[in-house]
Amino acid sequence: MSVLVNKDSKVIVQGFTGSEGSFHAQQMIEYGTNVVGGVTPGKGGSTHLDRPVFNTVADAVKQTGANVTIIFVPPAFAADAIMEAADAGIAVIVAITEGIPVKDMVAAKNYLKNKAVTLIGPNCPGVITPGEAKVGIMPGFVFKSGRIGIVSKSGTLTYEAADQIVKAGLGISTAIGIGGDPIIGTPTKNAVELLMEDPETDAIVMIGEIGGNYEAMASQYIKETGNKKPVVGFIAGQTAPAGRRMGHAGAIVGGADDTAAAKMKIMRECGINVVESPAEIGDAMVKALQEAGITA
């Protein structure tokens, strides 16, 4: 079992015929993802990458039965694309777009409140269930199927964690890149919860960064579950100065609790195996599994 996406997912691409959408859709198709079509307003009725193009998400859902979408729409229109997908009944929305105006995301997130939809992103690398479906921009060859889940704010650290896990002789159940913007659809806690409830995920890698309280909330949740699955954690931005944004829009130290050191302290207090460097993730996971008596 996986979370969010698998071999049965029917995926459409919003912004299908643009350069980014075309490139990554092709990569997803080559990986084996079931891409059933795409959406580009005004180009409905044509084909692209041997897949049908539709004018609206509603048309795409009606014709293909799509239940997952990935969004490569320019920032000014991306929030509308998210809301359109939710309106059409898409269950999982993966928004890759970076730089969506905050006020637009406030409106989009509020719009999704009472809808049966999971939004991943924006400003994220996507979601991958190795060997089944890649709905995102991650390098698929890094990921090998297994029983370790990954939740990460950072795109590149998602890949690094996967590489460390695979080199340690383990594999990945599902990796979720939640995105680094101040307002995202699925905070760390929610993504960790999905993997914590997945019977085919034995342990979790949780990667955070400076700024916000997502990691603290997730850590508290993990503690409240009785630490039923081993969690290895890492926080990026250990040398970041206060008040300066580092990389992601949400990565800024606004107070004492936003620092990497403060987050790592909270994580340790909640029973998470915290590493000082991403290079230690693989070894730490092997040790955590051994201590929990789990045979990988």
UniProtKB/TrEMBL annotation:
Pathway per the UniProt entry: Carbohydrate metabolism; tricarboxylic acid cycle; succinate from succinyl-CoA (ligase route): step 1/1
Amino acids binding CoA: 17-20, 43, 96-98
Gene Ontology CC: succinate-CoA ligase complex (ADP-forming)
SUPFAM superfamilies listed in its UniProt record: NAD(P)-binding Rossmann-fold domains (SSF51735), Succinyl-CoA synthetase domains (SSF52210)
Broad enzyme group: ligase
Biological processes, Gene Ontology terms: tricarboxylic acid cycle
Keywords of this entry: Ligase, Nucleotide-binding, Tricarboxylic acid cycle
Residue ranges constituting the CoA-binding domain according to the UniProt record: 4-100
Active site residues of this protein: 248
Residues passing through the membrane, by range: none
Catalytic activity: GTP + succinate + CoA = succinyl-CoA + GDP + phosphate; succinate + ATP + CoA = succinyl-CoA + ADP + phosphate
EC number(s) recorded for this UniProt protein: 6.2.1.5
Highest taxon of source: Bacteria
Gene Ontology MF term list: nucleotide binding; succinate-CoA ligase (ADP-forming) activity; succinate-CoA ligase (GDP-forming) activity
InterPro entries linked: Cit_synth/succinyl-CoA_lig_AS, Citrt_syn/SCS-alpha_CS, CoA-bd, CoA_lig_alpha, NAD(P)-bd_dom_sf, SUCC_ACL_C, Succinyl-CoA_synth-like
Record-listed substrate binding positions: 159
Subunit structure, as described in the record: Heterotetramer of two alpha and two beta subunits.
Alphabetized HAMAP family for the sequence: Succ_CoA_alpha
Function, as annotated: Succinyl-CoA synthetase functions in the citric acid cycle (TCA), coupling the hydrolysis of succinyl-CoA to the synthesis of either ATP or GTP and thus represents the only step of substrate-level phosphorylation in the TCA. The alpha subunit of the enzyme binds the substrates coenzyme A and phosphate, while succinate binding and nucleotide specificity is provided by the beta subunit.
Family membership: Belongs to the succinate/malate CoA ligase alpha subunit family.
Protein name stated in the entry: Succinate--CoA ligase [ADP-forming] subunit alpha
Taxonomic source organism: Pontibacter qinzhouensis
